Amino acid sequence: MRVALTIAGSDSGGGAGVQADLKVFFRFGLYGTSALTLVTAQNTLGVERLHLLPPSLVYQQIRSVAEDLPVHAAKTGALGSAEIVEAVAAGIRRHGIAPLVVDPVMVAKGGDPLLAPEAVAALKERLFPLTDLITPNRLEAEALLGRPIRTLEEAEEAALALLALGPRAVLLKGGHLEGEEAVDLLATREGVRAFSAPRVATRNTHGTGCTLSAAITALLALGKPLAEAVAEAKAYLTRALRSAPPLGQGHGPLNHFA
Ligand code: PXL
User: Which residues have C-beta within 8 Å of that of residue 169, sequence separation ≥ 6?
Assistant: First the structure.
């Protein structure tokens, strides 16, 4: 049995965060473990309340899991504060947890902040150097680089600039860019590769980023090479969007069992 760890926030509505990650791990046949960073009172309409957990408790969850279970891959999601980012980086480093996928979550679907602005520097300085893959969307990449990304050409430059911040690879997601196809760019030391998928017209997009990064983490835990994991996870995400169940009155969840 292969083991994956998610270090992320709780979405009470079950569509994103730790709940989504664990469903995806289950879907790929993994044993899922978790370290909670924050708790939201949330549904498909938005975040009603946000509570950050103490950094020492985040660290201790990682330690408790890693001292007992063989973590074959891990991912991070919403981290809340610079102090939590530092606790996570310390836990990852102390226990040699790898491969690590970092989804640099900054805001929830409705725009509610899930990471303090001053935590962006901690993310770049403390966590990215320990990371095998970061998976920013366009808005997160803009915040990380401090400049706009409007075209595919600018996206390619941005992916390489993000790679220079220290992670082994960057998946710059194109879901927020224009165009009929959703084009994601994978930047590694070997160069930039595009992964294209048809855009799915749906308002059930809650937890899309969590679901993709959890699927990549699951496939890495199963021993797939990075580019294969990305391609397979993206195909899974398209199926999960296409078969999303009609749940909730807002941005509904995906079909994690696709
Ligand atoms: O999809 C980003 C995300 C991550 N983590 C938590 C969330 C969300 C989006 O709503 O609630 C806990």
Answer: 132, 133, 134, 163, 186, 187, 188, 226
